[in-house]
Amino acid sequence: MKVKHELNKRQEKRTWFGKLEIMKMSAVWLVITLSVTAMLFIASRLSAKAVENQRKITEKTIRCVGLAEEIQSGSDILTNAVWRFAATGKTRYAREYLEEKTETLTRDKAIEGLRKEGLLEEELETIELAKSVSDNLMEQELHCIRLIYEAEGIQYFPEEISEVELTHTEKKMTSEDKRKKANQFVFGSRYEATKDVIKENINLFTSALYTRQKKELAQAMRRTDSSQLLQQVTAIMLLIWCLGFMVFFYMALIRPIHYSCMELKVSRNKNHKLTLRGPLELRSLIIAFNDALTRIQYKNQEILDIQMVDPITGGFTSTRFDLEVERFLQENREFAFVSLDIRRFKLINDVYGSEAGNQVLKAVYDAILRCMEQEECVSRIQADMFNFILFETDEKVIEQRIEAIHQTLIKEHRKKNIVEEKSSEYHLSVNCGVYQVQKKDRDIVTIRDRANVARKMNRDEAEYLEECVFFTDLERQKLLREQILENEMEHALANEEFLVYLQPKVRLSDKKTAGAEALVRWNSATFGLIPPNEFIPLFEKNGFIKKLDYYMFTQVCRIIRGWIDSGKNVVPVSVNLSRKHMNDEGVIKRFQNIQKEYKIPCELIEFELTEAFVFEDLKRFKSIIGEIQEAGYKCSMDDFGSGYSSLNVLKEIPVDILKLDRGFFVGGDIERGDTERGTNVVKAVIRMAKELNMEVVAEGIETWTLVEFLKEQGCDMVQGYIFYRPMPVADFERRVLHEKEDKGDII
Q: Model's pTM, two decimal places?
């Protein structure tokens, strides 16, 4: 008890700051801070005012000295003019004198300007005395100029000179005496003495100005020093006060929070909450934090359930299933990876409704799960496709176990009687493909793809499930088939066996064709019509796809040229650009040369790039898009959503058009209306694309329900069997081009 009391005493002493009322302390801190800040502001203003005063004193002195020098300069100019006229007798010097005299009379304004500067009376008397002496001197100079005019016998006098009156004696003087008298004054000592008096008074005035400036500047500098000292002291006070508040803030808030966080860390319990401690305000904050933590944990659990629990079957999602498979791969375990789907499942949804379809999915999951052994797992990957693993390596055993699963499924289906209302018995059958995983396998995507390939080859619908297709058998057949196609491909290109098929793109706003996509078909002289999914992957692998791209682009340009020449309606056509061109320099330039050869407008060509470009080299992908757009073509991202696209990718790629992959719609949740997940994803993609100023085209659309949904969401165009299948060029011209109005217009 004594030890506990001592600990409590230490804790109380350690957190005495926490007993303070933070609101009141904050109010006091705010008042003091504002006061010190106001003092600092006042000191700054005083310092600025003192500096401004110094500047005004200096500018005032400069102005006054300038005015005094203006008076002195005017007097000197007059003297030079008089001297030249007296020495030469040329009237132009007299005119210069008179012009300068007129300018010099503005000294009165200069004197008035000095008076407005607030000069002392003694200073003004000095400058006015200089002005008075100068005025008298000008009168005498005019008198001398009149005498010289008389001596030179000039008959016509300027007005100012004619106003000068000569004395009776001067009038009787000879011309020589008049000149002599004028020269005696102008070049005499009396004239020099008068000039010296003017200069002396101006110098006295200037000296007085500088003396007063020194005194005023000294006084202003003392004020500046005082205000700057006050500013420094106030700044130091503010700094000390802020440091003090930081100490208070640490003791009252930070340290209690630090102790709580340390307690949380030491506890090693994610559900542990912060212990209430510290002042009342901090306790309220901790309570709010604990409540928020509780809500976050609840939401995290909801998110985890969404990610890991399938809403229809209640079992693993694909994410959870992939995690389990990854664990088995890391443990170097060998097992069979099985891909299974329900034959004609879309018919169940169409005839019996989506609720019955969901019940079938749940029944299939339960049947597979019932046959699972320890550590084996199953998941609904998407729609009606299931993946599960069996820890078996023998093909016979694998076939037996899958047959057992199928028999269990049939019994479960008959027992629950899900889709037999008002109809004869519906036989539920499945397609099944198996890939036997070896220790060397590491990529779950490749593993799933191989199982899917095997599943798609299982087309025996006569019996429910007579056999499973294993990937190993297919691989040998596939390699043989690929070798045959490789032997034929160059010959086929030379003989133009590759045909252009066009699939229209329909604008949803008016249901009119706004463009088309050029698709390739191989009409082999040996094997007949070969579907693209057989030869395109092979050409991608061996690089022949680049030759095929150039060939298809040339054919499309030739077709468009024919439309233009024959006066048909013309629509833009998009061509596919393989990612194999990614590392080719000048690839767009080569396409551009073909386009220019056929004189096709750039706006009639669109390049489609698959999203695989993004994940190989995003920087190069952006560069290629830039080259395409710089050349004047439009650029679209094809098959968006077919791989591992995310909404974050959209902001990184400056394409003009976004094409949503058919996987968003065909056999998915949107078409069945099972859940809002797929709908929300499509809405989000379209909304973000619109915000990024991209057009949106949806591929693989086969129902009017999807058409109306996409139109409501702002999708621009659709491409799918609901409107048109891919067709030869002749059929396209007959069925599509003639339907368009406004002949010659390009959409």
A: 0.43
